[in-house]
């Protein structure tokens, strides 16, 4: 192939990737809107959409006839039959979801298991995915698997260096999953993938500078987005907010001498104070919302004060436009959002807090599965016809 042909093909592939990424991350678009947003000409967009339709990656629908003005172009929609599998192993369960292009969760299951090891996760995921292949996802194209691990994951190769609550150290989960299902596997930190999901599909879609904190059964992790880019650090380990020193202004609020943030702001402490056993987030939210006084109310107030102080420090250091709180951290805020947000702002420099927005994760319990699946889609998005 001559140099010109190679260059033309390279440009076409780049443009295909731009169009597919646009409808995946931003939703259905008419050809006219795609033309306007990409700056490509109409005939080029028509050719690119035709290729994506032919590859089964997008479908076209006729526009709403009630809104017809002139001759509107067809609406390009990501195919619901192109999916990636998101996996989140936690200390009490393995959650698995099938996520379509466009970020919609098609199938979801939570398998209770106490502190699963790598072999447990591989066996559970293989069993669930094979069942879906023969049933709910029959005929679908499965692009790959993304695994959201509550621990330190090396960016270079996806090795889990340390997941303390799962008791995984220097663990390879990508290799065994690939062998079991013949699918490409990517592995990342759960909170970083949650930040990715909220930035692309959730509460932080309109923001370029975001601090994300995720609170789960395994503790507190986080993600940092600056100028629209997820920041991983040298090895990929950035965002370990739970391991920072807790900001405890009143000694009476301390519960763990020398403890870090996740020792003080802790889901298990809330569960115990609420008198629950093993609740999901919806049950925990309901119990805490009903706690007007007593041990639960005391614990809620204590954790909110420490969390607000931590976020105030984050505002001073990073000057984000938005803070997103996932899991039980979002619940703590939602119990009294106005008071919590004001508590964060009073602990930050006034200039740094100007325009700051704070929100619970918009994607709820699906955030980690969507983020993991989006990472698994990355190779397809980079080269749709590769």
Identify the CATH homologous superfamily of the largest domain.
ATPase, nucleotide binding domain
CATH class of the largest domain: Alpha Beta
Estimated structural class? alpha/beta
Strands side by side in the biggest sheet: 6-5-4-7-11
Instruction: Catalogue the unreliable spans.
Output: 1-5
Task: Give an overview of the whole structure.
- The protein has helices at 3-26, 31-38, 42-54, 118-134, 174-181, 190-201, 261-264, 267-273, 281-289, 295-318, 328-334, 337-346, 350-353, 367-376, 378-382; strands spanning 29-30, 58-61, 75-78, 82-89, 93-100, 105-112, 141-149, 152-153, 160-163, 168-171, 185-189, 210-216, 219-226, 229-230, 322-327, 357-360.
- The chain is α/β, with parallel strands linked by helices.
- β13 (219-226) and β14 (229-230) form a beta hairpin.
- α1 (3-26) crosses α3 (42-54), α4 (118-134) runs parallel beside α5 (174-181) and α6 (190-201) packs across α14 (367-376).
- The relative contact order is 0.13.
- Residues 1-5 have low confidence and may be disordered.
């Amino acid at each position: 192939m001559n140099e010109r042909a190679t260059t033309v093909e390279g440009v076409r592939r780049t443009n295909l990737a731009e169009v597919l990424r646009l409808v995946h991350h931003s939703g259905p678009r008419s050809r006219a809107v795609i033309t306007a947003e990409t700056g490509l000409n109409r005939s080029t967009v028509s050719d690119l959409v035709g290729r994506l339709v032919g590859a089964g990656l997008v479908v076209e629908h006729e526009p709403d006839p009630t809104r017809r003005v002139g001759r509107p172009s067809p609406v390009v929609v990501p195919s619901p039959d192109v999916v990636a599998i998101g996996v989140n192993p936690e200390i009490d369960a393995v959650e698995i979801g099938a996520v379509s292009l466009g970020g919609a969760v098609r199938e979801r299951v939570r398998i209770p298991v106490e502190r699963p090891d790598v072999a447990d996760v591989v066996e559970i995921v293989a069993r669930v995915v094979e069942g879906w292949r023969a049933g709910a996802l029959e005929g679908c194209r499965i692009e790959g698997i993304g695994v959201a691990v509550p621990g330190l994951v090396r960016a270079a190769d996806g090795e889990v260096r340390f997941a303390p609550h799962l008791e995984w150290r220097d663990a390879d989960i990508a290799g065994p999953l690939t062998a079991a299902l013949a699918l490409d596997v990517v592995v990342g930190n759960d909170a970083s993938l949650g930040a990715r999901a909220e930035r692309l599909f959730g509460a932080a879609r309109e923001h370029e500078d975001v601090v994300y904190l995720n609170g789960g059964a395994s503790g507190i992790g986080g993600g940092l987005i600056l100028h629209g880019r997820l920041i991983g650090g040298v090895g990929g380990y950035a965002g370990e907010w739970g391991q920072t020193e807790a900001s405890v202004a009143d000694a009476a609020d301390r519960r763990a001498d020398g403890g870090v943030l996740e020792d003080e702001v802790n889901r298990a402490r809330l569960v115990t104070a609420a008198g629950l056993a093993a609740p999901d987030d919806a049950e925990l939210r309901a119990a805490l919302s009903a706690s007007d006084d007593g041990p639960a109310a005391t614990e809620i107030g204590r954790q909110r004060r420490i969390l607000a102080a931590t976020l105030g420090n984050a505002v001073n250091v990073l000057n984000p436009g938005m803070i997103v709180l996932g899991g039980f951290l979002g619940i703590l805020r939602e119990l009294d959002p106005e008071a919590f947000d004001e508590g964060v702002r009073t602990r930050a420099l006034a200039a740094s807090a100007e325009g700051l927005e704070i929100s619970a994760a918009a994607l709820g319990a699906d955030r980690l599965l969507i983020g993991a699946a989006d990472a698994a889609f990355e190779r397809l998005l980079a080269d749709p016809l590769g």
